[in-house]
Amino acid sequence: MTDDLTAGEFQAMTGLTAKALRLYAERGIVTPAWVDPGSGYRYYARQQLQHGATVDLLRRAQVPLAELASAPDFPFDRWRQTVALRRHLEDFSLAVAEKISIFDADDFIAHSTPAAAQDWVGIIVDLDLPENAEGRVETFTGLAVDMPAIEGALRDALTDLGAEPATVCWTAVPDTGVRNASGQMLLARSGGAGLDSAALARIEKVVHASTGSTVTAVAGTLPRRVEVTFAAASATEPTPVDEAAAGYLHLLAFEEHRARHRLTAIRPTARQVVRGPSLFTGDGAPVSVFDVQPG
């Protein structure tokens, strides 16, 4: 008579559910010691109890399935760091959400500045943002290095094409009509009048050759408009939570301002504008600018 455990006994002793045990068997994470060829019943060795219980508890700790195969040699220290990062991000997001939930339009002062039509040229960058928080942190860390290089390659390409240095630069959600699930960003700068499709193709090639990034070069004209910006009514030093919430709060302030004054937005979201030839080398922080049709 075998001393091995039935699937039901193994489940009861490890905490694993029948569904999980079947899935783990299919994935090779916790495989039966043997399967009865006649009945198809699965049996597990008692020596597998430690592994089974470890896997169950790792799943309760939200460890992905792909990591469970290494349960016997699981990198607990590394995962503790991952959990700590996730908790920090959750706490931070909670604080930002709380800040947004108590939004008060009276906390912001609107400034409106008429602006003439402006030619611009830029590139659309696919961000390829992962779903998980840890992956997003890693991606944004990489973007902090990649974006200045991409903008520099754009600037070099435009210099080769005879373009004048930019007086203003901005980032924005591109007006492509469709946003992919991973997100896109437009890096734009003033100038670019008269650039044809061959010049745009040249920009794409220069950026790819310099940075390895595949981008889409675009050009257009901002129409005559009124630029609406917002400043905090109080002069307190902003905290990291304030800075993270600012974009959302400015959007809410703009929506209230737009409705109150019956304004027509040219684009649904703000441009993050920096005065000067570069987004990344200037001293000033980006300013959220909402473009509306002139009255």
TrEMBL record:
Alphabetical UniProt keywords: DNA-binding
Pfam families membership: MerR_1
Taxonomy of the source species: Bacteria, Bacillati, Actinomycetota, Actinomycetes, Micrococcales
UniProt-listed PROSITE patterns: HTH_MERR_2
HTH merR-type domain boundaries: 4-74
UniProt GO MF annotations: DNA binding; DNA-binding transcription factor activity
InterPro entries tied to this protein: DNA-bd_dom_put_sf (IPR009061), MerR-type_HTH_dom (IPR000551), MerR_fam (IPR047057)
Name used for this protein in its record: HTH merR-type domain-containing protein
